[in-house]
Amino acid sequence: MAACGGSDSSNSSNSSDTAAAPAPSASEMTSSGTSGMDQPFGAACSAVPASGAGSFSGMAQDPVATAASNNPVLSTLVTAVKTAGLVDTLNGAKDVTVFAPTNDAFAKIPEAQLKAVLADKDMLTKILTYHVIGQKVTPEQLGTAGPFKSLQGGEVTVSGSGEDFTVNGDSKVVCGNVQTANATVYLVDTVLMPK
Asked: Which residue, 134, 8, 5, 10, is CA-closest to 61?
């Protein structure tokens, strides 16, 4: 997941760069002459480091699980992906879209429930693969081309347009259109549960 993992082959050489200054906002990027829909968007994008492996440019160089492992707002997701044994699966996937729950999304789950899910590899795998769509979905397609079939098999619905999207009716995209070497990532504020 765009924000998952790290395997023996992951790139962790720039881990000290994750405390860099915040990335420019979508409006700042748009005013620099680049189309806003070609760039990451959303309030939580400011938490992404401005340089290093966890920055937008750094994440674009790595496959999704490795890229996520370099992003400090996705550390709980990375732990879950490692626990489920999905690092290589996600890093090897081609042209996927990942709805990546932030640390704050996982914090909404009661601690006992989260511990139970993390201890149940089958359930954890179902939940995590439900966050992955088997095709790249652009922001322009996001609110209009669905529902989307997840790798878990269930459908994910998205409503909205521009820079305001909601997944499955209650999970907001807080930083979208983040590119990795093999995925488009949308950071979400609520963990999606398979339907």
From this structure: 10
